[in-house]
Amino acid sequence: MTDDDIPQIHSMPSADSSTGPVDLGPVQVSGPSADTPPGGPAPLVDPGGPGGPANLASERDGAPTRGASGPIGRMGAPAIVCLIAAILVAVDQVTKLWAVAALSGHARIPIIGDLLGLVLVRNPGAAFSLATGQTWIFSVVALVVVVVVIRASRELGARAWTIALGLVLGGAVGNLIDRLVRAPGPLRGHVVDFIDYGGQFVGNVADIAIVGAAGAIMVLSVLGINLDGTRAGEDDDHHGAVTAAGAAIGPEGGGETRRSRRARRRDESGARA
């Protein structure tokens, strides 16, 4: 028997074999399809993301963006303002009912000596028993404040402003209820005050909220923080960024936003001046 009579066993070449390249057959390379735009495929953009059409559309319509942080992005500023106001009004009215029931006919009850105490006072004037005798004027002012705050809440984009305006709205409504329903009559009703500050002022929960909100608004104004959350001087930069983003998205999702339109009108007014 010779070597030619023995069957030969041939092993299949492996992928890492050094005997030579392995023929994998024809390789097809796909080119751009007929549907591909001339500039190449469009970048992947999350429609609801910070740069997406949905976010720019929300900003254009004045609605909170999907990417906004905090409660403003989840519920909307007007809803948060009304929620804060509703809670404050409830607390204010409950404490006033308690004061009328518990403090009527009693002398001043000290809490911290002469600095802080409880005494029931029916106030025909403004906060902390100021300007008594002008009840109807303060009733009208309170109504105007309520309307202004509700309208301004549509432009809010900063949590601090949202909380401040919620406190203003709640305080105004809390005292307005007293002026509408308490004696001697509608728009002339006396506000229930019961927190005595060293014999200088007597107030209530609504007064505390109004004064606290006024202080917060002063701080925000000094810091240059606008209602929409931007700082003074940043509108022009934001205008350029939003306009560029709107142009990149195109007519289907972009366009001129409300904020960029305001900035453009300011620029045109300055140029004409």
Automatic annotation (TrEMBL):
Active site: 193, 207
Compartments it resides in: Cell membrane
Group of enzyme by EC: hydrolase
This protein's name: Lipoprotein signal peptidase
Coarse class of the protein's main subcellular location: membrane
Higher taxonomy: Bacteria, Bacillati, Actinomycetota, Actinomycetes, Actinomycetales
The species this protein was found in: Actinomyces gaoshouyii
Catalysed transformations (reactions): Release of signal peptides from bacterial membrane prolipoproteins. Hydrolyzes -Xaa-Yaa-Zaa-|-(S,diacylglyceryl)Cys-, in which Xaa is hydrophobic (preferably Leu), and Yaa (Ala or Ser) and Zaa (Gly or Ala) have small, neutral side chains
Record-stated family: Belongs to the peptidase A8 family.
Gene that encodes it: lspA
